[in-house]
Task: structure prediction
Amino acid sequence: MPKLKYALLFLSAALLAPVLQAQEAKPVATADPEVVLHTSQGDITLELYPDKAPKSVANFLQYVRDGFYAGTVFHRAIPGYLLQGGLYTRELQPRRTRPAIPSEADNGLSNLRGTVAVARGADPNSGTSQFFINLVDNRRLDFVGNQSGLTWGYAVFGKVIKGMDVVDKIAALPTRGIGPFAADVPNPLVVIESAQVVGEAAPAAASTPAPAVPATTAKPAKRGARKPAHGG
Result:
């Protein structure tokens, strides 16, 4: 009888082994990375989509981890359109950026309210550190085709999941022309005091100097404009 008992136990273990191995081999779902922007008007939390925009997300996370965004401002706020930042210091001088990244605008994501996208110039592959938050559904900024910069659209790589009220508050501030900008600069200036990846230690603030000659800047065209504009 004991021999039969041990044989049954061995058989049960042998049958269970493949099931346990399959469970162990099953990949564990990882949460999308999140970034908190601590601004002078409140916190904004972004969820990023590395599965849809891997290059854009990796680029943004590197700037965050480098402390690049600390001390930069939201230099462009247009109610009913977008909020943009990620390059200019409190003195409205551009910081030196890393090389531009390829556009991922054709990733199937739409520029809906609350989404975060890569700002760029006329060249679809000119995005660096600048980003914008859509205040409304801006489907006209979506990818249409690769014929030109006018049809390529803007690459969405994340979404505001907390603090959209802060975004709206910033967008509602009065604006002015100051420094290199003719208009649309929030008054008072809205500073990104720090940015960090949720679950990671806060990075030290970057000490990157502004280039002697202003770099080519990026932004989506204003609503109704016929082509993307340059200069902030």
